[in-house]
Amino acid sequence: MRYYVAVDIGGTEAKLGIIDSRGKIHSKMSVAVSFDQYETPIIDTVIKGVEQLIEIQGVKRNYSGIAVSAAGQIDVTLGKVIGTNGHIKNYEGTNIKQRLEEKFGIPVTVINDANAMVLGECWKGSAKSFTHVLGVTIGTGVGGGVVIDGHLLQGHRGIAGEIGHFPINYDGTLCSCGNIGCFETVASMNALIERVKKLQVFPMPFNGRDIFNHLVVDEIANEVDQWIADMSAGLVGLIHIFNPQIVVIGGGVSYQKTHFLDPLRNKVLEKVMPCFGEQLVIEAATCGNDAGMLGALYHFISQMDSKGRDQ
Ligand SMILES: [Zn+2]
Description:
Nucleotidyltransferase, domain 5; single chain; alpha/beta; 5-stranded mixed β-sheet; globular
């Protein structure tokens, strides 16, 4: 059995785990990365975290590599952060692969976090038996990944699948990427919060869960309906382009079956051309917070060691 260290770097914390080649997670922990507003570079925090994780194992193991999933646009060949849409200080330009390989002396791969989520779902989650998969993560932004014929669509520099940033509303609002009316500006949880803010029914601040807990208020329910309709329009376009067997929806809101996933599925199936909708599955992601680490490892093994993955 081979053992790996998996790391999932997000904007507020990094998750770290020891995972074997079957995808079994033996231990995990998380470290805050934004504790001093990123004055400490994220990569330094991650290196310390990996040292701690290995130390608390108390077992001398040879790790076969470090598999990293990371926020931002990642050049997968270099293992480097080449773009971010947010404002994370001391992060863009970080050569994650080089830093970790220098420190730990074992191979490292790096992949974008939304792409990793999709691969995690393909390996251990709701997309397990599918080879054509569209993954969409609804959070503060919208992330995604596309798997075609069992392979992640990576594009020229490994940064394909930024489905949050295709403009869907030319007259819409400014996106974090600098464009107007990206899918993210209508379909993210932030977009829903902005809609509900205008109703002035909640004291600030409130979050997505507060919204879904107050659907008895008609105005709120209407905003949620409209948000789902806008989201479905973008998904219909993506389904027409990629012809997936399954659309996997990740993010906290995907657990809302009756008030989110079911109506979203209905709206998408109403609008797609019939031949795209036949047998199309639209399901919530099931790996939860582990999807990024699992997907990072799936990617590592696919890249480095095609015999290493046991299942
Ligand atoms: Zn954008």
